[in-house]
Amino acid sequence: MSGRRRLDWLGLTPEPERELPVAVAALRAPSPASPPPPPEAQAPAPGARAPAPGARAPAGETPAAGPAAAAELAAAERRRVERLVLRGSRHGWLRYLAEVTELVTSVAEGSRPGDRAAALLAAEVVLDHHRMLIGLPGTGYGRTAEDRTALESAVRVLRTPTRTGDSR
Length: 168
Hints:
Blueprint: H1 15-28, H2 39-42, H3 67-87, H4 90-109, H5 116-132, H6 140-143, H7 145-159
Helix pairs in contact: 1-3, 1-5, 4-5, 4-7, 5-7
């Protein structure tokens, strides 16, 4: 292979770039059922600097809820995907999609609260992407075999209507 960077992975499909940011942001968002952060965590301490716009909350802290926060999370996710596509590598892109797969499967298994519709959309988009890897040279298709199996299972679960307290 020449010293040029391989870019064939970029031509698979535009759906991940278009559809994943909003769906993944919804999956990363704090659960609406989770309790709000304590008052001392909501406002910066006197003399503390406010976080930069678009900055992620530190681990263990929950960003503010609401439409503005959802839009901010989606914009941050869109910037991340854009960076991966414009300056990333196939390996980095597959690592990101593995992260998305983990979010989706956690929601499907019930080990993580989350928007089932967003999880289903993300699962279908990533699964379609991974299936198309068979047409590219390299090991991408083989590397994603476990993720494809997990996503197929998650799609089956997420397509099944859930029972609510009213339907028992």
